[in-house]
Amino acid sequence: MMKYMKYMFIMLALSSLVLLLWNQVPIINQTVHAILDPTFGSLLNRNATYGLLIIVMIFSLITTLVQKYGTDQATLKELKKEQKILQEEMKKYKDNPEKLLELNKKQMEFIPKTMELTMRPVMYTAVFFVLCFGWFRDYFATVDFKFLGFLSWIWFYIIFSIVFSTIFKKILKVV
Q1: pLDDT at 1 over 60
Q2: Are the C-beta atoms of 175 and 80 separated by less than 8 Å?
Q3: What number is the average pLDDT over the span 30-53?
Q4: Which pLDDT score is estimated for 140?
Q5: Degrees (nearest 5) of the Cα angle 17, 19, 21?
Q6: Of 66, 18, 20, 82, residue with least CA distance to 169
Q7: Nearest-CA neighbor of 70 among 118, 15, 30?
Q8: 3-state secondary structure the chain
């Protein structure tokens, strides 16, 4: 667990450093723009709403695939099954505080195991997404546009990434 926390902290620090240096170190900004302007930029220039929808769908698919193949799905399914059984037991003993406390402690033991299994995919994609979000911020700073008439690009991204991720997780049977 500590090993993954260390890597997660390093990735978080690296991602934060990239954002801090976005405008101070032109090579970061210019390289990302050189790659994303002709690809995602042309998609957004044609139609910002549909373009961002396609981009969100691509990112959600990438994230779901990394999550599926970057985690031990069998172990995660087993942990979820055990947690569900524990939750059922907790419902039975809701009037018994001592037993409930004991079951709650057991449930807390799942948190580090689950975190360890699910953190790896985040580490694989963190810097990529930070670079893309830096680019999105630059792109939409120059475009006065509200998606669907009222949503900023970040809210549009969040809402539709939840929708697409849910769909892809069901299709690909990702825990």
Answers
A1: no
A2: yes
A3: 93
A4: 92
A5: 70
A6: 66
A7: 118
A8: CHHHHHHHHHHHHHHHHHHHCCCCCHHHHHHHHHHHHHHHHHHHHHCHHHHHHHHHHHHHHHHHHHHHHHCCHHHHHHHHHHHHHHHHHHHHCCCCHHHHHHHHHHHHCHHHHHHHHHHHHHHHHHHHHHHHHHHHHHHHHCCCCCECCCECHHHHHHHHHHHHHHHHHHHHCCC
